[in-house]
């Protein structure tokens, strides 16, 4: 075991060796890692094992430890699916997989350490889902979920791929994995979890007028069918802090009224924009920006840029709002040169814009800029 896998188990194993109380998260991590090793085993192969997990499984009384942790009777802890569905269970150590279930009268444990698969369940009037889950929640056939009480915490992904409307759906506070909402065509009524670390699939959404994403988000945002026609994207607010990619497709032709992240690490794909009006790129950008514009009149470029800006159809920076520091301007130049573009034209245009708009109190810095442009010109220009 190396790297990331060892990081998961090592601190738990050390706590156990030191006879410290393991937490709910420790048990969830143990179960998930044990299952991951089993699942990655090929057909007709001996399952891969971690000696530390095997040792702990052999010596730990799971029911006793979890009963003490949740202050309940050992009978209220389950380790098999049959026990988990018997009723009055506080915590289930494992998965519950009921892919063909079509009725909703089952009462699930209050806490679930693994996954819950209800792939074909459509009705949920009497459904009581766990409050806290350590794995994935799969509800692939639910197309309307008004009144459905989802778990508060899901430490896996949430699969609601058939959901047609988000009205009346109370989403979890926290989802570690992706939220799959690939049948929604509008964000009306949608309130995403406050904390998301796996991104969201909104690949069929056409209308997102006035929709606000959580302020902080990790993972990718798929908005590949979002339309900017008829104000469908006006008032859209993307996360203020974004770690992941944002993908806009062929229907997104205008960024007017759209608030982009202030801090972003990832890819920002805007290849189908036809107008620069209202476009303000992230103030701090680490990653890649893709634009297909013929003019950047009024476009506000990042103050701090690490990565690539792809401007394949641009020949001039005339009218662009440029960074307000020397460092920012040099970073912009380098980012542009790393992308696909007419390098000779853009170098000259950017130099002219920098000279036309000198930094406050630094009008005589052209020599310094010339040195930087000189270094860039020494590189191979396409």
List the helices and strands and how they pair.
Layout (H helix, E strand, L loop, with lengths): L2 H15 L6 H16 L11 H9 L2 H9 L6 E2 L2 H4 L6 E2 L3 E2 L13 E2 L3 E2 L14 E2 L3 E2 L14 E2 L3 E2 L14 E2 L3 E2 L14 E2 L3 E2 L14 E3 L2 E3 L17 E3 L2 E3 L14 E8 L13 E8 L12 E8 L14 H13 L4 H14 L9 H12 L5
Parallel strand pairs: 1-2, 2-4, 3-5, 4-6, 5-7, 6-8, 7-9, 8-10, 9-11, 10-12, 11-13, 13-15, 14-16, 15-17, 16-18, 17-18, 18-19, 19-20
Helix pairs in contact: 1-2, 6-7, 6-8, 7-8
What does this entry look like structurally?
By secondary structure, the protein is α/β, with parallel strands linked by helices. The chain folds into three domains: 3-60, no CATH class; 75-205; 279-382, no CATH class. The protein is built from eight helices and 20 strands. It has helices spanning 3-17, 24-39, 51-59, 62-70, 81-84, 326-338, 343-356, 366-377, and strands at 77-78, 91-92, 96-97, 111-112, 116-117, 132-133, 137-138, 153-154, 158-159, 174-175, 179-180, 195-196, 200-201, 216-218, 221-223, 241-243, 246-248, 263-270, 284-291, 304-311. α1 (3-17) packs across α2. It is elongated, with a radius of gyration of 26 Å. It starts with a helix and ends in a 5-residue tail after the last helix. Residues 1-6 have low confidence and may be disordered.
